[in-house]
Automatic annotation (TrEMBL):
The keyword DNA-binding applies. Pfam families: LacI, Peripla_BP_3. PANTHER family: LACI-RELATED TRANSCRIPTIONAL REPRESSOR, LACTOSE OPERON REPRESSOR. It comes from Streptomyces venezuelae. The keyword Transport does not apply. This is LacI family transcriptional regulator. SUPFAM superfamilies: lambda repressor-like DNA-binding domains (SSF47413), Periplasmic binding protein-like I (SSF53822). InterPro entries: HTH_LacI, LacI/GalR-like_sensor, Lambda_DNA-bd_dom_sf, Peripla_BP_I. Keywords: DNA-binding, Transcription, Transcription regulation.
Length: 334
């Protein structure tokens, strides 16, 4: 026999508050003291309370869904799959379904009637859907800032991409690299623009030029291999390559091997995005762990907080990353 469903009244009784106070505390509404609000949420979590999403939708005349827009090139990328899972998990905690939007979505009124809010991840200049999404008349949270001209999003969750590339460059330099290179997409997104500007700034600060080659946003290992082979043919003194696109770094390893470079000894390879492809490479590749599932969770949480009036519009939150050093950069200084 299934256990009885925990009700709002059960939560109120266990927390020692009225039913209306419990409801306001869980929805982020009303004039409830913060200590009381936290107490009620802790009790609800301990009891395993799940809100009646259908009833909540009726009370607020909502659709019970939020939309998720990913870059047009994201369909095969491990990073975005994990990000989407994180967003779905957090949205479901609030009783929301997540609708993955088709790339062509860009109309205003039909979209606003289908979802309560939007998550727009890594918006790129040139993506024809983004201006319409930002102007749809509903709350929008972007994962990273949008560099184009369009209505400002309601909120954003950002990573310090300049700091993460700086950490990678510092790391390979400490391992002995003196002529690093970067394979990065064109600067049509906040992420890519930060990589380009940081490479130049780091090179000037250290008096070590960083060779930059442009590859596509979703470069395949084959594209990264071809770009690296061309790079090493033109500048054989290059002794480290940092690859930005998700999953493309194994192509750099193949190119290095083809040129007789000993990766992890006299040649370093690193990646701006961690994932299965770089962890399982031979040798495993040093990478920045952007914690995509947690990032998706954070983006959905901000949107849910805005929809429930728990935080102010125009809120910007930051997301933490971590550098994972592996055998591909353990050089003479190791």
């Amino acid at each position: 026999m299934n256990a009885r469903t925990v009700t709002l009244l059960d939560v109120a009784r266990a927390a020692g508050v009225s039913k209306s106070t419990a409801s306001d505390a869980l929805q982020g509404a009303g004039r409830v003291a913060e200590a009381t609000r936290e107490h009620v949420r802790e009790v609800a979590a301990r009891l395993g309370y799940r809100p009646n999403s259908a009833a909540r939708r009726l009370r607020r005349a909502s659709t019970g869904a939020i939309g998720l827009h990913l870059p047009q090139t994201a369909t095969r990328l491990d990073y975005y799959m994990n990000l989407a899972f994180g967003a779905v998990a957090r949205a479901q905690e609030e009783g929301f379904d997540v609708v993955l939007l088709a790339p062509a979505t860009g109309t205003h009124e039909p979209l606003a009637s289908r979802v309560d809010g939007l998550l727009v991840i890594d918006p790129e200049i040139g993506d024809p859907a983004v201006p319409g999404l930002l102007g749809a008349g509903i709350p929008v949270v972007t994962g990273e800032r949008y560099l184009g001209s369009a209505p400002a999003p309601t909120g954003a969750v950002i990573c310090d991409n300049s700091a993460s590339l700086t950490a990678l460059l510092d790391h390979v330099h400490a391992r002995g690299a003196r002529r690093p290179a970067l394979l990065a997409p064109a600067d049509t997104s906040a992420w890519a623009a930060a990589l380009h500007s940081t490479a130049g700034a780091w090179g000037r600060t250290h008096d070590v030029p960083v060779e930059v080659r442009t590859v596509s946003f979703a470069a395949t290992p084959r594209e990264a291999e071809e770009a690296t082979l061309a790079l090493l043919a033109q500048a054989p003194e290059i002794d480290a390559v940092i690859c930005a696109p998700d999953g493309a770094a194994p192509g750099v390893l193949h190119a290095a091997a083809a040129r007789g470079r000993a990766v992890g000894r006299d040649f370093s390879v690193a990646a701006c995005v961690d994932g299965a492809a770089v962890r399982g490479a031979a040798p495993p590749v040093t990478a920045v762990d952007l914690r995509p599932s947690a990032y998706g969770h954070a983006c959905a949480e901000l949107l849910c907080d805005i929809l429930a009036s728990r935080t102010d519009p125009a809120t910007v939150r930051t997301h933490r990353w971590a550098l994972e050093a592996r055998a591909s950069t353990l050089g003479p200084a190791g």
